[in-house]
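Structure ticket #2291
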Amino acid sequence: MNTRFALHSNYRICSISSIEIKKELSTWTREEMIAWLCWSNPTGIL
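Resolution: structure written out below.
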């Protein structure tokens, strides 16, 4: 089983290269980015 595809879709951004991240994030809306930030750090402390 390929765990990369079994994980929540938000994990994808954690496992791609910096070049791919820049490309991916350039397509996100502000709301999508805020949702991911809330998901990745729910306490807001980092």
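Closing remark: Residues 18 and 37 are 17 Å apart (CA to CA).
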